[in-house]
Design brief:
The chain is an all-alpha fold and 193 residues long. 67% of the residues lie in helices and 0% in strands. The protein is built from 11 helices and no strands. Helix 2 packs antiparallel against helix 3 (40-49), helix 3 packs across helix 7 and helix 8 packs across helix 10. It is globular and about 40 Å long.
Length: 193
């Protein structure tokens, strides 16, 4: 599908607030792509489709992953909303016709991140967190400035804030990938200081 066709479909499929968030991520990701000299078309598709599975029910997310033999961790079974990234990559390929593995990977890991993210992964991960509609996360003003200078440091700070927040909440399980990613970027960033 062409970009505009996907955009029209998502406007109908997603909740209005989710669609506004999506377009904010697109705008932010395109801005970061310009700064870091990355392919704007790839960034636009990844950003547009990153939450394309958010509308699925928890059971539909689980069923979709099981049907495609996508591994599901216990923390994802306990909190199926975490599966929207993996399901988003599936829908991007099967429903929207995206066959670029880099785009699909960025969509699949945009929630937890992964150690050693590539540039598209970093742009999407950071854009999802700092897009203009976000106003609840800590340090957003600083993170938005930092993102224009150093995506690796920005990812580390986002991961630190996320881990700190989730650790402060009772009965909240952290995804092991988020922990591994946080530890990886903490080490990388401490080496560069």
């Amino acid at each position: 599908m062409k970009y505009k066709e996907i955009q029209t479909d998502l406007k109908k499929t997603l909740k209005p607030s989710r669609y506004v968030h999506t377009m904010g991520v697109v705008k932010t990701a395109v801005h970061l792509a310009e700064i870091y000299h990355y392919n704007e078309k790839k960034v636009k598709y990844a950003a547009l489709l990153h939450d394309c599975a958010k509308h699925l029910s928890d059971q539909d997310k689980i069923d979709l992953c099981l049907a495609r033999n996508v591994p599901i961790k216990q923390v994802e079974l306990d909190n199926p909303s975490l599966l929207h990234a993996k399901c988003g990559a599936i829908l991007a390929r099967e429903k929207y016709g995206v066959d670029d593995e880099e785009i699909l990977h960025a969509i699949a890991v945009h929630t937890t991140g992964v150690p050693a993210m590539n540039l598209l992964d970093l742009i999407l991960f950071v854009s999802d967190y700092i897009e203009p509609g976000r106003d609840q996360a800590p340090h957003l003003k600083e993170l938005r400035k930092l993102a224009e200078k150093d995506l690796t440091q920005t990812a580390y700070r986002i991961l630190k804030d996320t881990v700190d927040y989730l650790n402060s909440r009772k009965n909240t399980c952290l995804d092991s990938t988020t922990i591994e990613t946080y530890q990886y970027y903490r080490q990388i960033c401490s080496l560069s200081e």
